[in-house]
Specification:
Blueprint: E1 16-17, E2 24-25, E3 30-35, E4 41-46, E5 51-56, E6 64-69, E7 74-79, E8 85-90, E9 95-100, E10 105-111, E11 122-126, E12 130-135, E13 142-147, E14 160-165, E15 174-175, E16 182-186, H1 193-196, E17 199-203, E18 211-214, H2 216-220, E19 228-234, E20 240-246, E21 254-259, E22 265-269
Antiparallel strand pairs: 1-2, 3-4, 4-5, 5-6, 7-8, 8-9, 9-10, 11-12, 12-13, 13-14, 15-16, 16-17, 17-18, 19-20, 20-21, 21-22
Length: 277
């Protein structure tokens, strides 16, 4: 599309063969689309076929596309800390695909437990294994850490090096920040309200110590409703974490702000104009 007008400039089909059974799929969906930091390319996850397309937009009239066979049911993902490697979940295949965006090829397919759902994932330095990327899961309570440094930690690179036990399944997002010592894990879709209305917080310097639970929905004081807590996001300074508290459209929702250093409530943004933020 034209960036200024959003006018479509070219339409390209994503129909194709599935990577495993080699069957034609007539209507595969596109999941994540990210821009490469290495080449003038968009990286496109084609969900049902399991293909990752590297679409070069330098000359759209003579379009060049690199097709990488990964694993079916590709969903979302994010960069490692160097922004060279794109890690993305093939959630119903229980795998993480790693794409080297510089060399334009698949680096690894990593087996993980049931239905990984990283959002963009979270990058930090594990005290033992060096730089890692983390994902939580829809299908279980595990938070899986994948080592991402093939230069200084080659023996661990693209392997699962640590699995943490979170509150439960139904997680959608994990989050940290370069200035933070905490890893936040939501459990938005867990059937237990006590779990879906709170978040787990791990101390990155002592990951095996377990997690602390923050009662985000309780702090919001919204009254009735499911009050599902979702998607921690840091402010630009990296000293606050903001959480959405989801209720139905006829109920009150809110945004809860937490001090990252103390893990104490800092503010509740509660306004009738906020509907499932």
């Amino acid at each position: 599309m034209d960036g200024a007008t959003l006018e479509p400039l070219k339409v390209v089909s994503t129909r194709g063969m599935t990577v495993d059974t080699q069957e034609f799929h007539p209507e595969p969906r596109v999941a994540a689309i990210v821009a490469s930091h290495q080449h003038p390319e968009f990286i496109v996850n084609v969900k049902e076929t399991g293909q990752i397309l590297l679409v070069n937009y330098e000359d759209i009239n003579n379009l060049k596309t690199t097709t990488i066979g990964a694993a079916r049911f590709l969903h979302d993902g994010g960069w490692d800390v160097t922004k060279r490697y794109f890690l993305t979940a093939a959630n119903q295949s229980n795998k993480i695909a790693v794409v080297d965006s510089k060399e334009q090829k698949l680096t690894a397919l990593i087996d993980v437990d049931k239905i990984p759902h990283p959002g963009r994932g979270a990058n930090f330095v594990d005290p033992q294994f060096g730089p890692v990327w983390a994902t939580s899961a829809l299908g279980n309570e595990k938070v899986t850490l994948v080592a991402t440094d093939p230069e200084k930690h080659k023996e661990h690179a693209w392997k699962v090096v640590r699995v943490l036990k979170g509150q439960g399944g139904g997680s959608l997002f994990v989050k940290t920040h370069p200035k933070s010592k905490h890893l936040y894990v939501d459990t938005t879709l867990n059937p237990d309200p006590a779990i879906s209305q709170s978040v787990a917080v791990f101390d990155i310097s002592n990951l095996e110590a377990g997690y602390k639970v923050l009662p985000i929905a309780e702090w919001a004081k919204l009254g009735e409703g499911p009050k599902r807590v979702v998607q921690p996001e840091f402010n630009a300074a990296g000293d606050e974490v903001w959480f959405s508290v989801w209720n139905g459209k006829e109920q009150r929702s809110a945004i809860v702000v937490v001090d990252d250093k103390t893990l104490k409530l800092k503010a509740v943004i509660d306004d009738k104009r906020i509907i499932t933020p």
